[in-house]
Amino acid sequence: MLSRRALTLGALGTLAVGGVTSSAEARCAPISIAQEIERARYVVEAEPISVDSHGAVLRVIASWKGTPPATITVSFSGRGHPLRNARPGTVLVVFAQGPSDAHLLVYPCGATGVLDRATIDALTHEGLTRTAR
After folding, report:
1. Domain ranges within the chain, ordered by starting residue
2. Helices within the chain (DSSP H only)
């Protein structure tokens, strides 16, 4: 039987040799849309205005939860963040959590990403309604 230390070192070795996506996925626990909604301060449709290595400034198009300002800034760290490669012109669904508008974060393994019909259906199924800005 392997010791806890050997198992930990083996897991770390696997993470170290994996690609960016696989190492991010290896550290992620799945989360349901319902859990994301519960955690979120805001659930919004938004378009990136700017993205850098520290975060993204997003123009809010519509809100599914909360009453956000016209633009929100979401901070992130880590290579596997879902907004790291977001580009202007792309409509995203963003589950922003945090204690205030000045400190918003996005769960890196959650449903934040390009808005699609399945996500709209899931939000509607959870009882949310879309409010255009």
Report:
1. 1-29, 31-132
2. 4-17, 20-26, 33-39, 117-125
For the beta carbon of residue 120, count every other beta carbon within 10 angstroms.
Answer: 15
pTM (2 decimals)? 0.77
Long-range contacts of range 67-70, CB-CB < 8 Å, 24 or more positions apart? 68/42, 68/44, 68/96, 68/101, 69/101, 70/133
> Which pair of tokens denotes residue 73?
């800034």
b (16+ CB within 10 A) / e for 88-103:
eeeebbbbbbbeeeee
Tokens of 60: 């809010």
pLDDT per residue, tens digit, the chain (133 aa), is 434 333 333 333 322 233 333 344 456 788 899 999 999 999 999 999 999 888 899 999 999 999 999 999 998 866 667 888 888 999 999 999 999 999 999 988 889 999 999 999 999 999 999 999 8
How far is residue 122's CA from residue 116's CA, in Å, rounded to a whole number?
Answer: 10
Q: Give me the architecture of the 31-132 domain, per CATH.
A: Beta Barrel (2.40)
